[in-house]
Fold:
Amino acid sequence: MSELPVEFVGSFPDPLVRLDPALPEVAFIGRSNVGKSSLLNTLVGRPGLARVSGTPGKTTLLNAFRLPRLYLIDLPGYGFARAGKAARAGYRTLITRYLMERPTLAGVVWLLDVRHDPSKDDLEIQDLLIESGRPVLAVLTKADKLTRTTGLSRTCDIAVALGLPQSQVQLTSIKSRQGMTELAESILETVGGPP
Ligand SMILES: Nc1nc2c(ncn2[C@@H]2O[C@H](COP(=O)(O)OP(=O)(O)OP(=O)(O)O)[C@@H](O)[C@H]2O)c(=O)[nH]1
Ligand SMILES: [Mg+2]
Structure:
C-alpha cells in the first residue's frame, strides 16, 4: 500500500458524515496510545500523515484518509484515563453509531498492545464489534518491545483471551515493519479488490 497515493480528506465529528465519493472504508480502533495513527502512517508509507503523539487522546475526531479505491479511518482512542465523563460518553456515542450504522464500513482493524492483556474497555469494544457484525482483524502492536518468542506466546494468549482464531490476530511493529504486508493484504481483501 505504501506505493499508492494517499490524501487526508478531513476530520469529522459526525460518525455518519458522507464522504465523496462513497468508497468502502476500513477503520482503525483501539485504546488511546496503542498506535493507531502510527500504524496507518506506516501502512501507507507517509510518516507525518496522521498525527502521532506521546500524549494520549490526540485524535478526537474521525479522520479520513483516501487511497484510490478505499478510505482508511483513524478513530479516536478509548480508555484515556484523564478524559472526563462527558468526553467518554461522547466517545461512546460516536463509536457506537459509527460501528452500527455506517453503511460504507467494510471492516475494522482493532488494535491491542501485545504487552498487555485486554482491558475492560477493550472487552466493551469487543462486545460492540461483535454486535455490529463487521469483519474484524485484531492487530497486536509494538512487537519490537518484546523478544520474538515472547511476542508469539503473547499473541496466542491474547487470541485465546479474546476467543479469536489465530488467523484473525496479527502481530505487528512499526519499528521492524513486522506484519505490515499481511495487514495490507487483509485490508485489501476486506474491501474486496485492488486498492
Ligand atoms: N516501539 C513502538 N512504538 C510504537 C509502535 N506503534 C506506535 N508506537 C508509539 O506509541 C505512541 C502512540 O502512538 P499513536 O500512533 O499516536 O497512538 P494512537 O493510538 O493513535 O493514540 P491516540 O490518537 O491518542 O488514540 C507513539 O509514541 C508511537 O511512536 C510500535 O510498533 N513500536
Ligand atoms: Mg491517534
